[in-house]
């Protein structure tokens, strides 16, 4: 469903993605782990074209974006078939919880206000925040804001949801409620690509885990393979450091 | 020292000065609206760094901020019609309106640009990620948030415009200051005449300030 071929991206002289190849199948949950600065977030943001890759290609269900030859209709189609959940939630601050979700339904998908409200309310039930629908983001906790952001991403009706460290900005006691919502999506066979530092969650929810370092994929496999018997030295070292902390 | 203030005279000329209030307020309000439109366009050119237009807008802003308004008005009213005959029929009020609009736009565009770039970049990214275009994101999410930030400095600009509209009297527009000057010249009661007109300007600024507080309270609801 998602095919990334030989994706390359640099910021000035700093090479961040050095030829990344990735395939994600429909209904699959792929978790990318790795140290800070390894290019995980940049990869995710490139898929939504929030970062502009220099070469390689990204294709989702027949929409093919050639990084050396991007055109705006392909970029738009790519963005409409994916949705992004950000580390810092990025809810529209000038819109209520309900309006945050209806915005794309009305503006992008051209649905009527009534229909958009119905969809948004159903999504708010899913993330357990229907009673907050008329509040503004600033009055919500981080965990609640992130759950609204997940509902907003689902409203796009995406083929793939990209999670960019969705719990990294949260207080520890709020991480669980967000992970539970993502877990729920995994059970419903939503295709997801997740960058996270929550190793327990990765073990639990992933169909496949990829360890990334220095702009390339070092190792990939089932959670069991990666977490209990990693083959590569760098993977071993990273897991050792991360898991030791706990 | 002779310090007898003729309060009776002040009350007597107040209605005459207030009769020209609509010219002052009309000039300032129209210049504010036109100035805001030009300023928003200039600000967006600056935010998106649009080719060719961006350096031109910088020259525009630099010129109108770097030269005196009074000299700009003189050039516009007395100078331009000499070289561009189509402006020969331009009356003083129109010239003052154009001059004030162009001048205030230069200041306000910088205010608006600053407010727009102060909005967290994640807001626009979120718009793009749900499939909105840059323009839709600007119009529906970024600009409304920037508007809240920009209200206090824009109200300042409006108060400045009300005061600067008094320069129109030098072109022969019969606004409030011109009326006060006439009263002063015909009676030699300079102190009272100019004091009255200053108090009127001050009162307007106070009223505008009260309206600003109300608007800000409304805009801050979401935060």
Description:
- The complex is a heterodimer of chains A (246) and B (223).
- Chain A contains 9 helices and 10 strands.
- Chain A is an alpha/beta fold.
- Chain A has a single domain, classed as Rossmann fold.
- In chain A, the strands form 2 sheets. Chain A has a 6-stranded mixed sheet with strand order 6-7-8-3-9-10, with helices on both faces. A 4-stranded antiparallel sheet of chain A has the order 2-1-4-5, with helices on one face.
- In chain A, strand 1 and strand 2 form a beta hairpin.
- Chain A is globular.
- The two termini of chain A are 36 Å apart.
- The model of chain A has no long low-confidence stretch (mean pLDDT 92).
- Chain B has 223 residues and is mainly α.
- Chain B has a single domain, classed as Orthogonal Bundle (MetI-like fold), CATH 1.10.3720.
- Chain B is 80% helix and 0% strand.
- Chains A and B meet through helix 2, strand 6, helix 3 and helix 5 of A and helix 6 and helix 7 of B.
- Chain B: It is a multi-pass membrane protein.
- Chain B: This is Amino acid ABC transporter membrane protein, PAAT family (TC 3.A.1.3.-).
- Chain B: It is found in: Cell membrane.
Largest sheet of chain B: none
What is the 3D shape of chain A?
globular
Helical content class of chain B: over 70%
Number of domain modules of chain B: 1
Relative helix content of chain A: 40-55%
Named CATH topology of chain B: MetI-like fold
Structural class of chain B: mainly alpha
- Our Rg estimate of chain B from Cα atoms comes to 21 Å
CATH class of chain B: Mainly Alpha
**CATH architect. name of chain A:** 3-Layer(aba) Sandwich
Supply the number of structural domains of chain A.
1
Cα-atom Rg of chain A, whole angstroms?
A: 18 Å
Binned strand content of chain A = 15-25%
Number of helices of chain B: 9
Instruction: Name the average pLDDT of chain A.
Output: 92
